[in-house]
Design a protein that fits this description.
The structure holds 2 protein chains of 2 kinds. Chain A contains 12 helices and no strands. By secondary structure, chain A is an all-alpha fold. Helices cover about 80% and strands about 0% of the residues of chain A. The longest helix of chain A has about 35 residues, at about 95-125. In chain A, helix 3 (about 45-70) runs antiparallel to helix 8 (about 160-175) and helix 6 (about 95-125) packs antiparallel against helix 12. Chain A is globular and about 60 Å long. The model of chain A has no long low-confidence stretch (mean pLDDT about 90). In chain A, about 40% of the residues are buried. By secondary structure, chain B is of the alpha/beta class. Chain B has helices at about 50-55, 100-110, 115-125, 140-155, 170-185, 200-205, 225, 265-275, 290-300, 300-310, and strands at about 5-15, 20-35, 40, 65-70, 70-75, 85, 160-165, 190-195, 210-215, 215-220, 230-240, 250, 255-260, 280-285. A 6-stranded mixed beta sheet of chain B has the order 6-7-8-3-9-10, sandwiched between helices. Chain B is elongated and about 80 Å long. The two termini of chain B are about 45 Å apart. Classes of the chains: A mainly alpha, B alpha/beta. The interface between A and B is medium-sized, with 28 and 34 residues.
């Protein structure tokens, strides 16, 4: 375990010292502040719009970081040849990969925490302390990012960052539309196409399960069973994707 | 005693391109590195040295054969438990300081915290990086990185050091440092297995040498065993004549010098005396590892080697 933590700490440290991450975080903070300005140009329930834009901003920036850092996770080690000394240590490869994933997750958690504090400060100063539902929505977002960065980690074990980014982006976008895929499959007449749609629906992640941001914005209570189901689904799916990533990483030659 | 490294018919076939065309990087390597020796691994570029080392370090999988480190089969992580490895042209985490870097690798090698701290301080002083311990590696020069890399190999107190081309790209001072370190660690009882192009260094510091050419082992043994008792060539200097045998190779200060194969010496001396020359010196030159290696390269690919001028 201490070896996994050592790798995680190093990954976290590398990310935190990366200037690109700082600029993304700065941009996210800016977006949160801009959300305040939304009320000036909106009619209707301005407070809800501000909450919606701010939560959407946190989710978008989280996804960008999950993809951006995830796709370089293994690739960078290979590209910079640090993998030679790292993988030659008396540590099983799956531990190395899990450590790297954990470091990425910690970076995301730190980033989302910072944005949550900013959200509380910025939106709270105007609308009073946010409801518990908002924090639940952010926790669910963290689950989504946990799953998303497992995918980007998997892609980084075999693809170059540009390709891996494209794959991860596809997963992110399709992941938010899998319900449509199901609908599409159910209504399709061609049996092959129908089967394909349904198969894709089952294999691809359903990221909308973690999206309770609209409910949080409108103050609608989400049943805990739904949250528990999403958590079980998210963690189980993450474990499966990581297992595949570990298998790919285990088999890789570092020439 | 269990050898530090043993390989049995170790082979690696790479496949590249769309058609997965096979290319043999290493074939049927039988190697045995006894515990406590300094072992030089030599061969021309692309001979399979790095392939062997990467396979031993589990960075690549062998496509045939087997290998053991301290009796533990590769690629079991335990086989790398008492091993310090320095890759060719090492690259390290630029965001880490030398201290953090050694601390990270110490943790990966399961060195307890207190021991780790003490050892890092000793190692940094030893490779003369004590003053730069808090400087990020990204700001280090090439020589400093190599020194940090050497310190890293010792962090886990290994009994075997595996160094891939530790002297390449270093200035004379850097090479002396590496050389001294290898000798000192050998005195400390560690086995040192290293590949090198600098054959003079290998000859000077190694107990045993293995030679690979074209992915195949071409010789293995102590340096005298490999060199044999054969004389590589004889340098003869004569005076008092303009030519012997109708031709002379070089003129040095009014004397005539010629480099001859050992079996041509007698005939030349007879001819020189017949021409009335005075024999100034006859110096037999022992074969060096370089001669041995070039012979092996010639034997492995006679046509190509000659065409490329490797033997010139």
């Amino acid at each position: 375990m201490s070896q996994i933590l050592a790798v995680a700490t190093n990954t976290f440290r590398e990310a935190v010292r990366d200037k690109v991450l700082h600029s993304i975080l700065f941009f996210a903070a800016l977006l949160l502040m801009v959300s305040l300005a939304m009320q000036e140009i909106t009619i209707g329930d301005q407070a809800k719009v501000v909450r919606g834009v701010a939560l959407g901003g946190i989710s978008l920036m989280g996804a960008i970081i999950a993809i951006f850092l995830g796709v370089g996770l293994v690739w960078k080690e290979i590209e910079k040849k640090t993998i030679y000394t790292l993988a030659s240590k008396p540590v099983a490869r799956w531990r190395l990969l899990f450590g790297k994933y954990l470091g990425l997750w910690l970076t995301l958690a730190a980033e989302v925490s910072i944005l949550t504090v900013l959200y509380t400060g910025i939106v709270g100063s105007q609308q009073g302390l946010p409801s518990g539902g908002v924090y639940l929505a952010i926790a669910m977002l963290m689950l989504e990012l946990t799953l998303l960065c497992a995918w980007s980690t998997l892609f980084s074990t075999f693809a170059a960052p540009t390709t891996a980014s494209a794959y991860s982006l596809c997963i992110y976008v399709i992941g938010h539309f899998t319900d449509d895929l199901l609908l599409f499959g159910q209504r399709a007449e061609d049996p092959t196409f129908k089967a394909l749609c349904l198969a894709l629906y089952r294999v691809l992640p359903n990221l909308e399960l973690f999206n309770i941001r609209a409910e949080a914005v409108h103050g609608i209570v989400v049943p805990m069973t739904e949250v528990a189901w999403a958590a079980a689904y998210g963690l189980g799916y993450t474990a499966a994707v990581l297992a595949v990533a570990m298998m790919v990483f285990q088999r890789r030659d570092f020439a | 005693m269990t050898p530090a490294i043993r390989t049995e018919k170790l082979g690696k076939v790479y496949r590249s391109g769309f058609w997965r065309i096979p290319y043999t990087g290493l074939a049927d390597l039988d190697l045995e590195v006894p515990e406590g020796t300094s072992f030089g691994f030599i061969g021309p570029n692309g001979a399979g040295k790095t392939t062997t080392i990467k396979t031993l370090m589990s960075l690549q999988k062998a496509t045939s054969g087997r290998a053991w480190i301290h009796g533990v089969p590769v690629p079991d992580p335990e086989s790398r438990r008492r091993v310090g490895f320095l890759p060719e042209r090492p690259y390290f985490y630029e965001h880490l300081t030398a201290y953090e870097f050694l601390d990270f690798y110490g943790r990966l090698a399961d060195v307890p915290s207190a021991e780790r701290k003490a050892r890092i301080n000793v190692l940094l002083e030893r490779v003369d990086l004590g003053r730069f311990r808090d400087v990020p590696l990204g700001k280090y020069s090439k020589g400093m990185l190599q020194r940090a890399g050497l310190a890293q190999t010792l962090i886990g107190d290994p009994s075997l050091l595996v160094l891939d081309e530790p002297m390449s790209g270093l200035d004379p001072l850097g090479r002396v440092l590496v050389r001294d370190l290898i000798l000192e660690e050998k005195r400390n009882g560690r086995t040192v297995f290293f590949s090198s192009h600098v054959l003079a260094d290998v000859e000077a510091i190694c107990d045993r040498v293995a030679m690979v050419v074209g992915g195949k082992l071409r010789g293995q043994g102590t340096v005298p065993e490999l060199l044999g008792s054969t004389v590589a060539h004889v340098d003869i200097v004569v005076a008092g004549v303009d030519e012997v045998d109708g031709r002379l190779l070089a003129v040095r200060g009014g004397r005539l010098a010629r480099r001859l194969a050992p079996d041509a010496v007698d005939a030349f001396l007879d001819a020189a005396r017949a021409a009335g020359a005075g024999i100034v010196s006859v110096v037999p030159a022992q074969r060096t590892l370089e001669n041995v290696l070039l012979d092996e390269v010639e034997r492995a690919r006679p046509v190509n080697a000659k065409r490329l001028g490797v033997l010139a």
